[in-house]
């Protein structure tokens, strides 16, 4: 059992900088929670607080029901995998993996057995006699994970463990870590700035910005119902388009209007927006809600949007269009790879009015 609770946790560094502000977050036992956010948002600080490598300025931190505010790192039954892997260069892989257990005074035969078992699990048995410098990046990453799992900790903390790997290895390692999480049945807290990594690995994702928690939810909920403009813009690639807009009542129907668009609202959104009256709002459109009419799915009722194509990126399974609207606003569309667009031409795309997001212009909260 290892649940984790951050209860009104604040971390103010000695220079007065507040890296984490009033964080309230519970990680359930056996959960794979991903902390995600841009550089400097406080992810690593949160992880270091949990590991006992930093002290809290305010609040309480619990592992299970035990307050660990002053509990030394070594007594927290936590293992951490760092971005740099922090392997000891003069030790072999075996010695690196065995080191923590030796410090704990575990008998040699037990150590050997646990290291072999972990090495088998991670497919690094043939590497046990090598030194870190004789390993590839992917192999080093596995050794760092191996060093953490031999100790059978109650919680794994991982700080961007895949950021040194090339794109292909990263995809493979992502799947391996997800599998490892299922096999071990242990609580994982995983830090990344990469929203794709967060979406693919986390059972839940906590989005941080400037030391403040923005939203905690499953990947799908974060994507479908972002709490505010920051989360909406951070989750999803290419990012959501934001356009200045106005709510307007036309013939008894609430619509959202921009310089280039006039969209009806679906009944649920119209209900939520009803209180906003004739107000300025921010309209959010995901790139995949803009369609090439020649390749649109089924019977979608699309609202036309005229734009000039400025860049076309062919990705094989899709094409990304960068467009400029008549009012100078720029938008990005994700369209079928079969779409035939050329730079400089003016095109008419279709907008799916069922997939519209609205945000309060002042608070930036979702409507
Ligand atoms: P990255 O993705 O770049 O690693 P992060 O989200 O992990 O970023 P943190 O390392 O937690 O961010 O840092 C959060 C903020 O706290 C940053 O603005 C950083 O400059 C600041 N910070 C970190 N460590 C200290 C320190 N020891 N003293 C003062 N400020 C610090």
Automatic annotation (TrEMBL):
Annotated ranges, domain ABC transporter: 4-235
**What are the annotated GO cellular component locations?**
ATP-binding cassette (ABC) transporter complex, substrate-binding subunit-containing
- Gene3D superfamilies documented for this protein: 2.40.50.100, Nucleic acid-binding proteins, P-loop containing nucleotide triphosphate hydrolases
Q: Which InterPro entries match?
A: AAA+_ATPase (IPR003593), ABC_transporter-like_ATP-bd (IPR003439), ABC_transporter-like_CS (IPR017871), ABC_transpr_MalK-like (IPR015855), ABC_transpr_MalK/UgpC-like (IPR047641), Mo/tungstate-bd_C_term_dom (IPR008995), NA-bd_OB-fold (IPR012340), P-loop_NTPase (IPR027417)
Instruction: Please provide the record's keywords in A-Z order.
Output: ATP-binding, Nucleotide-binding, Transport
Molecular functions per Gene Ontology: ABC-type transporter activity; ATP binding; ATP hydrolysis activity
One GO biological process this protein is involved in is: carbohydrate transport
KW Repeat (keyword) present: no
Against CDD domains, the record matches this protein to: ABC_MalK_N
Per the record's keyword annotation, is Nucleotide-binding included, yes or no?
A: yes
Q: Which Pfam families match?
A: ABC_tran, TOBE_2
Protein's name in the database: Glycerol-3-phosphate ABC transporter ATP-binding protein
């Amino acid at each position: 059992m290892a649940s984790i609770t951050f209860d009104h946790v604040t971390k103010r560094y000695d220079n007065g900088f507040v890296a984490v502000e009033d964080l309230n977050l519970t990680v359930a036992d056996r959960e794979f929670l991903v902390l995600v956010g841009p550089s400097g948002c406080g992810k690593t600080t949160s992880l270091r607080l949990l590991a006992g490598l930093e002290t809290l300025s305010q609040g309480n931190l619990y592992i299970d029901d035990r307050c660990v505010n002053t509990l030394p790192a070594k007594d927290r039954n936590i293992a951490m995998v760092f971005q740099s892997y922090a392997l000891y260069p003069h030790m072999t892989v075996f010695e690196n993996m065995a080191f923590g257990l030796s410090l704990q005074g575990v008998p040699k035969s037990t150590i050997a057995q646990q290291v072999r078992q972990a090495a088998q699990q991670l497919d690094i048995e043939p590497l046990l006699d090598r030194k870190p410098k004789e390993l590839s990046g992917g192999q080093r990453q596995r050794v760092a994970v191996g060093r953490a799992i031999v100790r059978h900790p109650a919680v794994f903390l991982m700080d961007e463990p895949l950021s040194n790997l090339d794109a292909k290895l990263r995809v493979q390692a992502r799947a391996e870590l997800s599998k490892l999480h299922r096999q071990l049945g242990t609580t994982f807290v995983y830090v990344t700035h990469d929203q794709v990594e967060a979406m693919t690995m986390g059972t839940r994702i906590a989005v941080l910005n400037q030391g403040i928690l923005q939203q905690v939810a499953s990947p799908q909920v974060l994507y479908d119902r972002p709490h505010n403009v920051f989360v909406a813009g951070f989750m999803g690639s290419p990012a959501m388009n934001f356009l200045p807009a106005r709510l307007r009542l036309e013939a008894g129907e609430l619509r959202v209007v921009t310089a280039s668009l006039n969209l009806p609202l679906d009944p649920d959104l119209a209900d939520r927006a009803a209180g906003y009256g004739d107000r300025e709002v921010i309209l959010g459109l995901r790139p995949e809600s803009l369609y090439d009419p020649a390749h649109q799915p089924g019977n979608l009722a699309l609202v036309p949007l005229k734009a000039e194509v400025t860049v076309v990126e062919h990705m094989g399974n899709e094409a990304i269009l960068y467009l400029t609207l008549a009012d100078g606003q720029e938008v990005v569309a994700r369209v079928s790879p079969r779409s035939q667009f050329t730079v400089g031409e003016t095109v008419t795309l279709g907008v799916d009015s069922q997939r519209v997001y609205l945000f309060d212009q002042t608070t930036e909260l979702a409507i």
